[in-house]
Amino acid sequence: MGLVKEITAQHEWETFVGSLPKSTLLVIFFHAPWAAPCAQMAKVIEALASDYAAKEDSPPTSWVSINAEELSDVSEIYDVVAVPYVVLQRNDQVLEAVSGSNASALRKAIETHAPLNSTAAATATATTTANDKSGTTGGGEEVGKNEEVLSPEEELNKRLTGLVNAAPVMLFMKGTPSEPKCGFSRQLVNILRERSVKYGFFNILADDDVRQGLKKFADWPTYPQLWVSGELVGGLDIVKEELEKDPDFFKNFSVPSQNGAAAA
């Protein structure tokens, strides 16, 4: 990603953070390769990093990209439960976090904590607007248009629509795949792993708005919930029934295993 450094190992992350001057604003971009909104957000991040690098008098910033699944220990430090997710940090203190592919909110947050002069700010606005208009992704938005005012329920439903479509297979569970917080969630994770299914997940225990809102949105009162191609399949019992009827139910969503290991 050019100016945005890809961190691929825990020790690399620790060394990098430890070497930053205390005055530097660290922009941490958590992503996942299966999430389409992350690809669009990556372009926005790169454009913003370029704007800061182009100005000699711009505040000191550093930009990193982290695969939230591969570096789960780092993700857990920042309570990352969905991607894209961007954290702003200075001197080891989290200043703000932006969840989802909201380019205008991200730009505003970064400029709040590392103000550009008016000329640079105008350039950043133009650049991110152009990137937003280059394509549409789940949860994204175009900058520069008059935004529709939505009620809290409409905002939540918009967010939930983006979440259930964030990956072809989405698991809303209690806990994370590495640390499930209920037996049903653990069993569903095992079913997906045994079949090498590439899936996204959301820890509903970390966000009560999603936890309560998705019950109404899906008309399904319990967790875990499994969604495929934006449609609710159901809970553990329903998934087992689907597999009994069709053992190849997940065939289109499986990936080849490496060295006999199932996909995480």
From TrEMBL:
* Signal peptide from the UniProt entry: none
PROSITE patterns xref list: GLUTAREDOXIN_2 (PS51354)
* CDD domains registered for this protein in UniProt: GRX_PICOT_like, TRX_PICOT
- Which GO molecular-function terms appear in the entry? 2 iron, 2 sulfur cluster binding; disulfide oxidoreductase activity; metal ion binding
The protein's UniProt keywords, in alphabetical order, are:
Iron, Iron-sulfur, Metal-binding
Give me the stretches of Low complexity compositional bias: 119-130
Q: Name one GO cellular component term.
A: cytosol
Q: Where is this region: Disordered?
A: 119-152
Its BP terms in the Gene Ontology are:
intracellular iron ion homeostasis
Keyword Manganese in the entry? The reply is no
InterPro entries according to UniProt: Glutaredoxin, GRX_PICOT-like, Monothiol_GRX-rel, Thioredoxin-like_sf, Thioredoxin_domain
The Thioredoxin domain covers: 8-111
Please provide an example of a Pfam family that matches this protein in its UniProt record: Glutaredoxin
Q: In what residue span(s) does the Glutaredoxin domain sit? A: 169-233
Q: Which family does it belong to?
A: Belongs to the glutaredoxin family. Monothiol subfamily.
Q: What does this protein do?
A: Monothiol glutaredoxin involved in the biogenesis of iron-sulfur clusters. Binds one iron-sulfur cluster per dimer. The iron-sulfur cluster is bound between subunits, and is complexed by a bound glutathione and a cysteine residue from each subunit.
> What's this protein's name?
Glutaredoxin
Q: What is the lineage of its organism?
A: Eukaryota, Fungi, Dikarya, Ascomycota, Pezizomycotina
